[in-house]
Structure formats: C-alpha cells, structure tokens
Amino acid sequence: MKKKFNRRDFLKIASIGTATAIALSCGAIQTAPPTAPEPDSLPTDIPQPQVDSASSEAEVLVLGAGISGLAAARTLVDKGVSVILLEARDRIGGRMWTDTSLGLPLDLGASWIHGVKGNPITALAKQFGVETVVTDYDNGILYDFDGRELSEDDYKEVEDLFESIYGEVAQMQDDTDTDMPLQQAFDEVISQMDLSTEELHRLDFYIQGQFALELGADPDNLSLWEWDQDEEFGGDDVVFPQGYNQITDGLAKGLDIRLGVKVTHISYGADGVDVETSSGTFSGEKAIVTFPLGVLKQAVVKFDPPLPESKQSAIDRLDMGVLNKVYLKFSEVFWDEEFEGISYLGEETGEWCDWLNFVPYINEPVLMAFHGGAKGYAIEELSDDAIIAGAMKTLRVIYGESIPEPDGYLITRWGRDPLAFGSYSHIPPFASGEDYDALFEPVDDVLYFAGEATSREYPATVHGAYLSGIAAADEI
Questions:
Q1: Of 50 and 35, the one with more pLDDT
Q2: SS3 of 91, please?
Q3: Which has the closest alpha carbon to 373: 21, 3, 121?
C-alpha cells in the first residue's frame, strides 16, 4: 500500500503557525479525468443557446447548479445537446457562494484555487478575466493562549515533534493489517512518549489545524489508510478578491437554468428519466445528478428504482465534513494587518484558532475565522450573539479590551444547510477511494453522477467537482 505526503504539500507543514490551516474551503474522477484546456486555447465567447423557458423536456437534465452541474451543462450545450439545469436554491453556485450583504464580496463557501499549475479553474479565471491573489502561507503570526506571540523556537519544537510523530503514523499506514481511525494511530504513538501538558496542548492544536481545518473532519473520523489518497495540482494557492462567483457566473452564461426548483423524486429506465419537482415534472433522455454527498446520505430525494447496492454502499461509507466561517467587518484595523494568517493557541483546541486577514486581499477591515470538524458542527448550535461574543473574547485576549465591536458579520452553518448537509466529503475509517469511483459510476446509461464526492483524484475541491461534471458529460 503506497502512501505519500501529498495533501497541500503535506498541508504546508512548514508554516502551520501562520496560515497553514487556512488553505481550504471548498468548499471536491474517474481513473482518467479530462485534461483541462490550456488558457490560450479557451474560447473568448461563450455560446448563447436558444432557451425555451416554458419547456419541461430536454435531452439531458442536470440536477444542481453548483460547479459540477454548471461544468456538465456547459460541456453538453457546447456540443449541441439540449439541457435544462434544475436548481433548488434561488442562486447558482451551490457550495460556492459569494455574499455581498456587507458591501463587499465575501466567499461563504469555496475560496481558493488549490494549486494553480494545470488547474482547470486557473484556466477559467483567465478566460473570464478574473483577478486572483496568491496566499502567502509563510506570512502569519501565532499567539499563545495568554495572547503573547509564540516564539519561533517554541513553534519549531512543536513542528519537529509533530513531524517525528507523523513519521511513525505514516509507517503504520503500511504496516497495519486493518484500517483504523487516524487519531487512534496518533494516540498509539503519543502514548509511548513522555510529553508535558503544554506539549500535548500545542500538539493537539497542530493536529487540529492539519486535519479538521483542512479536511473538515477530525482525525478520529478519518481513515488511517485512505485519508490522503487524493492527488493535487502544483503551484500557489490563490483567492478571488472580487469573489468566486465570477467563475460560476461565467460558466452559467446562456444556460437554461431553472432556480427555485426542488427535486423530490427521480424515476429512470430504458425510456429515460422523469424528475418530479416543486415546479412540476421534467423529462429527459438522461440526467446528471450533482447533489452533495450530504444530500444523498440523507435520502431526501427518492430514486425509482432504488440506486444499485454498490452506489448506495459507497454513499453510506463516505462521510461529509464541515468547515464553517465567521466573517467580522470592523470600522478600523486593530490587528496585525501585514500578516495574512493569524493563529491562536487557545485553551480550547479548535475554537477561534485560525483567522484570515482580508486587508492584504481587499484592503478592507475584515477578519474571518474557521471552525472545522466537530468544532465546526458545534458552532452551528450557538446563536449569532454567542458566536460573535466568542470571537470577540479571543480577539480581546490578543489585542486588548479596547478594540471595537464589529459593524457587521456573516456566519455559515453548512452542516444545517438542507441542500448541502456539510461542506465536502472525506474518507472515514474502512471507506476508500474506490467509493468515490462507485459514486461516479453511471446507472443503466441513463443516470449519471458528478460532484466533488465523485472525484477520486480531487475530492473536496472545486477543481475536482468541475472535472467530474465534464467527465459525466463526456460519458453521455
């Protein structure tokens, strides 16, 4: 069993004390995914198909207008196939959602292109003329629980300790006869060491950042064998100062998209597909299902006949994680505006530990905090007031009691979202990358599937979801 350090160059291990744990949020293939076109070969004009908004029939129905559904519909329409795209929300994008209610574009879901080299989203950004800014993972600062800056020597000790422990954990990936939770492997290694309470606390912070804030799941919910089976693109990670919706808006141009149409029942067979919705029944020769894994796991949409056992088993084995964001907009900057990442080694591991400073990106006094895994789900149980109070308590430990209250805020609760039930997929113990393949597999050459949880190579990423949509369209 071949294992490797590959997740974000081993999660940007050299800079966890800065903004390492921040490089995430998307917010996702087949064994041979389509190759992304080079930017110079992309068309400058998007086709404008003739759309009959009164029709309820098309050659292909695409269910869900997230990035995978948009990619599938765009690919099919460009090849002359008639497509109706059904979306339950009143907007496109799914888990890509740029909010402007605070007077500036802030991404509540996906934020980054993870690895720009060869990445199809990089090509789209160039095609649509979208500005991107590189995230500098070395540009950050780490504060201890009492608000003092942690020294480089202190941080280096924690980093070295983690690397030595993970070296043994990685060896266990090859040596164990059965899978187990990743946390169990850490516990077995750590139990053989004589560590102080302070060392254990700092180590827990490091582990939390490496996994819960990267994968949306804590190590006890990750497979030792399979957690890092994915692939990645090289190069920098970049954000969109004016919002990720520029990508989805570009893909959607000219497509027949029906918003506010909630799918309730899908009947399929040799004669095609009938999709019952809140706006009547739609029919097609084939359909592409792009519902998030969380929605499939909740079985809120009924399939007739039921999905094959192999696909349903894959849905049951894979799991959905969560990464939630809290944006705070202030009247002025009172923090370290030169640092992109601000990390806090608080008394409660995983609470208000990682912040992103938006001044370098948009020159606005905005901070954003992440909560992932169990802490991400826990924060959803709190009221807005309680969440803001928790955020300000932490910021006042670091920057003093005199800092102002925020003028505005945004809070995500992806785990409670009935059209997502989480942020993105991960592989829990005893599941495997083969489950992603099984979820992608078409059913009876009529029903096709796309989305980040159908991408074996690039799950939990925007580019994985995008490529899966193209792959499903190519299968048709």
A1: 50
A2: coil
A3: 21
Residue 51, pLDDT score:
60
Please, what's the b/e burial string for 257-276 (b: 16 or more CB within 10 A of its CB; e: otherwise)?
bbeebbbeebbbeeebbbbb
Torsions phi, psi for 85 (to 5 deg): -105, 120
Let me know how many helices (H) and strands (E) the chain has, helices first. 14, 21
The residue behind tokens 């944006």 is 327
Residue with tokens 């269910």: 63
Q: Coil, strand or helix: which one is 84?
A: strand
The angle, 0 to 180 degrees and rounded to 10, between the axes of the packed helices 67-78 and 462-475 is: 40
Of 109, 74, 34, 160, the residue nearest 322 (C-alpha): 109
- Give the Cα separation of 27 and 338 in Å (integer): 26
Eight-state DSSP code of residue 367: E
CA dihedral 40, 121, 20, 425 (to 10 degrees): -150
Residues β-bridged to residue 286:
60
Q: Which helix (H) or strand (E) holds 295?
A: helix 293-298
Query: What does the DSSP 8-state code read for residue 101?
Result: T
Q: What DSSP assignment string belongs to 65-79?
A: -BHHHHHHHHHHHHT
Tell me what pLDDT residue 107 has: 98
pLDDT band at 288 (very low <50, low <70, confident <90, very high): very high
Q: How far is CA 9 from CA 12, 136, 473, in A?
A: 5, 14, 31
The continuous run of DSSP H or E covering 368 comes out as strand 366-372
* β-strands 354-357, 341-344 pairing: antiparallel
Model-level pTM?
0.89
Q: Cα separation of 109 and 228, whole Å?
A: 22
Quote the pLDDT of residue 52. 61
How many other β-carbons are positioned within 10 Å of the β-carbon of residue 404? 11
